[in-house]
Amino acid sequence: MQENCLLKMRNINKLFPGVKALSNVDFTLRKGEIHALMGENGAGKSTLIKILTGVYQMDDGEIIISGNSANIRSPQDAQNIGISTVYQEITLCPNLTVAENMFIGREESFIVRHRYYEKRAEKILNDLGIPARSTQQLGSCSLAVQQMVAIARAVDMKCKVLILDEPTSSLDDNEVNMLFSLMRDLKSQGVGIIFVTHFLEQVYEVCDRITVLRNGELVGEYLTEELPQVELVAKMIGKELDELSSLGEFEEKQTAESEVFYEAKSLSSSDALPFDFEIHKGEVNGFTGLLGSGRSESVRAIFGADKVNGGTVKIKGEDVKITKPIDAMKHGIGYLAEDRKRDGIIADLSVRENIILALQVMKGFFKPISRSEAEAFADEYIKVLNIKTASRETPIGSLSGGNQQKVILARWLLTHPDYLILDEPTRGIDVGTKLEIQKLVLKLAEDGVSVTFISSEVEEMLRTCSRLIVMRDRHIVGELKGKDLNQAQVMKTIAGGESKNEG
Amino acid sequence: MKDNFKKIFKGGLGQLTIPIIAICLLVIFNLIRDPAFFSIALSHNNEGNLVLSGNLISIINGASELAILAMGMTLVTAACGGQDISVGAAAAIAGSAFVKILKSSPNINGVTVIAAFLFACVVAMIFGSFNGTLVSVFKIQPMIATLILYTCGRSIAYWINGGATPTVDSPIINAIGSFIPGIPIPTPILIVVLVAIVFKLVFHFTSLELFTQSVGINGSAARLNGINSTFIKLLSFIILGVCVAIAGTIGVSRLGLINHETLLLDVEMDTILAVAIGGNNLGGGKFKISGSIIGAYVIQMLTITLYAMKVSSTDVKAYKAVVIILLVVIGSPVIKAKFSKLMNNIKNRKPAVAKGAE
């Protein structure tokens, strides 16, 4: 066992101002294994990765690579000793060709021999079975292929340790499978892969070992087959199992008909085809479907986020016109966008300013919320939603993903919406926060708020929604409720075959 | 004490650190060079008014137009992530418009001056909205959009008064440009204070600051939160227009004439520089008006110091450039990161020693 150790990290410590990010963490990676690094947001996964890749310097500890103590002071050092990283966001240049992307920054001479590189790139792509041509512009490849090109680049740099940081979060199932087969290939060639992800199923599909971190401490290292999924979750969030299942008490979802809050007839936008939709007061419904099925586009049309082209909208039975976000907000609709970084947070502004933003817009330009009022609001929601932040004046950009999401949630809760649209509120955030958000959704519904909840994890939607609208190829292909609300039925409807469900 | 120290480097003053250090260094340098440099005298001027004079007064007075323009420029920078390079030319237009109204009435009294000023404001706001529309509606880069007015502005100013450089002679104009009888402080300084207070009040009574920063930092998120970013950007240019009109009016009043070729010549680059020295990100986003004001005074103090050192006016620009390189480099993210790392190391050393003692 000793000799096939690729990487050993021992007693790693890292202190950030005021926070102990890592304390005495050990991590071992063996030759030819795929090793999942799991933990909630803020557990220290990213810090550990960043120490390994030379972005941060550890305060204390030891890194041993292939038996030699390594001193990693910069990303360049990490690369030189064979550690490569592929991040969630593609960090290549979309306007260059695949070959150029693979060799940029490591040309052997000043004269760039295009033909030679293209040939070499073609060979690597073939060997790894990546469906791309070396002369193709990277931007014209799908995200998954771009991701794979990034991996190919890393592999060609003779990497021994490959770190994949959330590589699958923007890929669909097919693409994930392609990525996995590539990972297995590399594994058989003896590359050690560290896989960071939030998708539990993917961990069980592809990983040999799991290391769990919690609050900057090592919980343990496990063989995947010896750790059932529920136990893994429990270890990650440090909560007892029965607490996890306590969501069950909401199981009895209210299906009693209440008044219709929102109703759209053949609503369409620049991105969404015409569709009909209605939601009752206090109802939680969901839009599901594969990526690109039009679920996000549809809810964006409801909020007026894209250019609305046509259709009629009624709120509480009265005709209204919603063409831009402010119209929707004035009618009591809130919208948490799918892409938190691009459409949600105002990164440099404080938690306080981010929380009051939507309410401030609704109050209007000439009625600013006073500083003391804003502070009270911020403190209240930091407490209610258990937002982990150094203070309310901390820039939101420096919070972890889950906590940023909570701040955006707080922003909309503060407007006391009648109808809240949550598009992927749980994406890229840890299991503990996911549960908190699901509970919150059910609590809101109890208080009479209508909620549209979208998630890529069908199971999560089945737990929270009382009605599921299924979309395929930008059309609504079914509506499931009651006894039809189960995984099999959802899959069947997504996959097609059945025409529009008549209830 | 220690806490204060920490605050200065860790937030609190934050972006004001560099401009404040710069101004302190300039003051210290001047005090060593000539201890009497900052002495202020109270004396009668040739109109018999009791007035303050001295280098310090002339620095603060001389920077007035720059400070006012820098305040407006800060808003444009924050909202649009770019700068307006036409402020000098626009000020010449506003100044010409101001003089045009004054000249059109037989005798200049308070009412005509106010009317002339308001007219100048309207004219400057119209040109501001021209720039603003190009930037916010047509999404043209601010520097390119304002290049148009930068190029043709002084020609437009020339047409307004038919190519002449008319003089205006009136005690009221004189009072705006130099001293109000009975008040020993130069009027332009008072106007700067007034404009700063108005900005402060606007920020207090509206959401301008929050909205502008939101639009500048993340336009897409701002839009989805119901902010009309087109309007916010346009508004920033219109507000800058008002600043331009005020600066133009002061400029005209100082000389008692409008010279469309030389009024506030090259002021645009100094204005942008003041915003930058003030620690504001020229790419938009978070801003501090106070930083830009201090930045304006830093630039003026630098200029006056160089003149006082008998540096010829041709050489001044070169020397200025050297100091500015230093300021900008010190304020750069790279140096800041290095510095905060250094501070952290110093801070972390102490607990480590304490631990060792245990």
3D structure, described in words:
The complex is a heterodimer of chains A (503) and B (358). With 503 residues, chain A is an alpha/beta fold. Chain A folds into three domains: 5-245, P-loop containing nucleotide triphosphate hydrolases (Rossmann fold, 3-Layer(aba) Sandwich), CATH 3.40.50; 246-332 and 418-503, P-loop containing nucleotide triphosphate hydrolases (Rossmann fold); 338-416, no CATH class. Chain A is built from 18 helices and 20 strands. In chain A, strands 6-7-8-3-9-10 form a six-stranded mixed β-sheet, sandwiched between helices. A six-stranded mixed β-sheet of chain A has the order 16-17-18-13-19-20, with helices on both faces. In chain A, helix 6 (173-188) links the parallel strand 7 (161-165) and strand 8. Chain A is globular and about 70 Å long. Chain A starts with a strand and ends in an 8-residue tail after the last helix. Chain B has a two-stranded antiparallel sheet. Chain B is globular, with a radius of gyration of 22 Å. Residues 1-12 and 352-358 of chain B have low confidence and may be disordered. Chain B has a domain at 64-296. The two termini of chain B are 27 Å apart. Chain B has helices at residues 2-10, 17-33, 55-62, 64-80, 87-104, 110-136, 142-160, 171-177, 187-205, 208-217, 219-224, 229-255, 267-277, 289-308, 313-330, 333-357, and strands at residues 41-44, 50-53. The A-B interface holds A 15, 17, 59, 303, 305, 324-326, 329, 335, 337, 342-349, 353, 356-358, 360-368, 393, 411 and B 11, 204-208, 210-211, 213-214, 217-218, 220-228, 285-286, 344, 348.
